[in-house]
UniProtKB/TrEMBL annotation, chain A:
Residues 22-153, 156-220 form the Exoribonuclease phosphorolytic domain. The keyword Nucleotidyltransferase does not apply. Pfam families: RNase_PH, RNase_PH_C. This is Exosome complex component RRP41.
Automatic annotation (TrEMBL), chain B:
GO terms for biological process: exonucleolytic trimming to generate mature 3'-end of 5.8S rRNA from tricistronic rRNA transcript (SSU-rRNA, 5.8S rRNA, LSU-rRNA); nuclear mRNA surveillance; nuclear polyadenylation-dependent rRNA catabolic process; rRNA catabolic process; TRAMP-dependent tRNA surveillance pathway; U1 snRNA 3'-end processing; U4 snRNA 3'-end processing; U5 snRNA 3'-end processing. GO terms for cellular component: cytoplasmic exosome (RNase complex); nuclear exosome (RNase complex); nucleolus. This is Exosome component 7. Gene3D superfamilies: GHMP Kinase, N-terminal domain. Component of the RNA exosome core complex (Exo-9), composed of EXOSC1, EXOSC2, EXOSC3, EXOSC4, EXOSC5, EXOSC6, EXOSC7, EXOSC8 and EXOSC9; within the complex interacts with EXOSC2 and EXOSC4. The catalytically inactive RNA exosome core complex (Exo-9) associates with the catalytic subunit EXOSC10/RRP6. Exo-9 may associate with DIS3 to form the nucleolar exosome complex, or DIS3L to form the cytoplasmic exosome complex. Exo-9 is formed by a hexameric base ring consisting of the heterodimers EXOSC4-EXOSC9, EXOSC5-EXOSC8 and EXOSC6-EXOSC7, and a cap ring consisting of EXOSC1, EXOSC2 and EXOSC3. It is found in: Cytoplasm; Nucleus, Nucleolus. Residues 32-166, 196-261 form the Exoribonuclease phosphorolytic domain. GO terms for molecular function: mRNA 3'-UTR AU-rich region binding. CDD domains: RNase_PH_RRP42 (cd11367). It comes from the Eukaryota. Keywords: Acetylation, Cytoplasm, Exosome, Nucleus, RNA-binding, rRNA processing. Belongs to the RNase PH family. Pfam families: RNase_PH (PF01138), RNase_PH_C (PF03725).
């Protein structure tokens, strides 16, 4: 491969010691901020993302944007200038972050019950504080929790995960070194209960025969993530209800 | 929220409270809100700190890069500031909405911190006229609840305290070309002295009195504010009037006196806290955003 690193050792371990299907440690918290309508923070390994949700509220700016039958989903993805190894000059507005903003918008249009809020707008802002691969996935997972924290109804949790393909083995939840390693990277957002795919993206060539295995690996990873997110939500609700009961 | 709108009745209530030295949240005129500080929160940086003041939430990351010294001061390194008013703080900042505020704050930060009296810029020089360290101080606003300047200055000071710059060695070969070598040991680092680094105290004139650490509601009642940067010895290094209204010389004098007193009182607990946190070393439980 291009980086000259061995992404998968002969013993079947990855650069950071994980097994091919193993996810990085996930830690998350809902309701980190008081001012937004919903907020959440997630750590997936060394990738850290913060999501804030405002709305549903009146459509801001030009009225022409408003949709008569559903809510407008407005997303902005940005990265802290110090989040990457090399300092970034701008937090957002570059081609890469605009692309992720678009993807987030598509993902959440598929997941939020937008028809419940006609002529209104929901803002989802995601900030990457520390980047170590899987920025899109961490953003989706953080935003899901923030949307739930805001009390906006979803069809299901949206969980996202990346997967790569090295030496005929699918790898789940890639870190930065693995993403930069030059292999195939697939990003997938899943609504796990119905098995519906909200977003699918793959940027490199891959033999068609392998696509199924790769997608299956990503979907399995998404399902495991959904159990983690579900636990975070339940724990948060438990905490909130005991606090309000006192 | 960057600003709030309040009714006349609320304004009267706040102004009367300030007159009697009892503010809406129970504080006196010279009291700060509860402040939380944590350093070393982002591992991709050379130094970082997070400060919460009320609901204001600031994250500062510092990255050191090697660059060329400025021609006017060939034996000094320098600081570069960038303030990111992110949409996370308020939807008003979406797109380019936060740029004006960001530029205004970063310009003030240049004036306060980027001079040899505040930071030992000479220590950042590697070889005169050729190489120096540039510290990129990136401020991220996560939530705005008034008094951003004070919170940012504390966060910058804490992050500078936390900054570790790798030691470098310059070797020269036979032809006289210099080469910079970074130390192999990640713990072989240089640290900056933050002894003379000032903190900003913003005083807002509300009615006939002035208050420290104004909330957004109090800020809305204030015609004009005075920003002072004060060192641990009580020296004022920068004064700036902000806001649309005007101030008479007498109140500027009074506000400067208060600012000196409050600024000096702010510095010693801050240093104590930073030193205490550092003394815990690796044992310290990192809280970050999970706590």
């Amino acid at each position: 491969n291009m980086a000259g690193l061995e992404l998968l050792s002969d013993q079947g371990y990855r650069l950071d010691g994980r097994k091919p299907s193993e996810l990085r440690k996930v830690q998350a918290r809902m309701g980190v901020f008081a001012q937004g309508d919903g907020s959440a923070y997630i750590e997936q390994g060394n990738t850290k993302a913060l999501a804030v949700v405002y709305g549903p509220h009146e459509v801001r700016g030009s009225r022409g944007k408003a949709l008569h039958d559903r809510a407008v989903i407005n997303c902005q993805f940005s990265m802290a200038t110090f989040s990457t190894a090399e300092r970034k000059r701008r937090p957002h507005g570059d081609r890469k972050s605009s692309e992720v903003s678009q993807h987030l918008k598509q993902t959440f249009e598929a997941a939020i019950l937008t028809q419940l809020y006609p002529r209104s707008q929901i803002d989802i802002y995601v900030k990457i504080l520390q980047s170590d691969g899987g920025n899109y996935s961490a953003s989706v997972n953080a935003a899901t929790l923030a949307v739930i924290d805001a009390g906006i109804p979803l069809r299901d949790y949206v969980c996202a995960c990346s997967a790569g393909f090295v030496e005929d083995t699918p790898l789940a939840d890639l870190c930065h070194a693995e993403e930069a390693g030059g292999g195939t990277v697939l990003s997938l957002a899943l609504l796990p209960q119905g098995g519906q795919i909200a977003l699918l993206q793959m940027d490199a060539r891959l033999h068609q025969d392998h696509l199924d295995t790769l997608m299956e690996a990503a979907m399995t990873a998404c399902r495991s993530l959904s159990t983690v997110l579900d636990r975070v939500v339940r724990e948060h609700l438990q905490e909130v209800t005991t606090l309000t009961a006192e | 929220m960057a600003t709030v709108q309040i009714s006349e009745a609320e304004k009267v209530y706040i102004v009367h409270g300030v007159r009697d030295d009892l503010r809406v949240d129970g504080r006196g005129c010279e009291d700060y809100r509860h402040m939380e500080i944590e350093t070393d929160v982002v591992s991709n940086t050379d130094g970082s700190a997070r400060v919460k003041l009320g609901y204001s939430d600031i994250l500062v990351g510092i990255k050191a890069e090697i660059g060329r010294p400025r021609p006017m001061v060939p034996d000094e390194g320098f600081l570069e500031f960038f303030v990111d008013c992110s949409a996370n703080a308020t939807p008003e900042f979406e797109g380019r909405g936060g740029e004006d505020l960001g530029t205004e704050i970063s310009n003030t930060l240049y004036k306060v911190f980027n001079n040899p009296h505040s930071v030992d810029l000479r220590a950042l020089c590697i070889s005169p006229k050729e190489h120096c360290w540039i510290l990129y101080v990136d401020v991220l606003l996560l939530q705005c609840d008034g008094n951003l300047y004070d919170a940012i200055s504390v966060a910058v000071k804490a992050a500078l305290f936390n900054t570790r710059i790798p030691r470098v060695q310059i070797s020269e070969d036979d032809e006289g070309t210099k080469e910079i070598e970074l130390s192999d040991d990640p713990y072989d680092c240089m640290r900056l002295s933050v002894e003379n680094v000032p903190c900003i105290v913003t005083l807002c004139k509300v009615g006939q009195r002035h208050i420290v650490d104004a909330t957004l509601q109090e800020k809305a009642c204030s015609k004009a504010c005075l920003l002072l940067s004060v060192t641990s010895r009580g020296t004022v290094t920068c004064v700036r009037k902000i806001g649309g209204g005007s101030l008479d010389p007498e109140s500027i004098f009074e506000m400067t006196e208060t600012g000196k007193r409050v600024g000096k009182a702010l510095q010693s607990p801050l240093m104590e806290l930073l030193q205490k946190e550092e003394s815990l070393g690796k044992k310290r439980q990192k809280v970050g955003f999970l706590g």
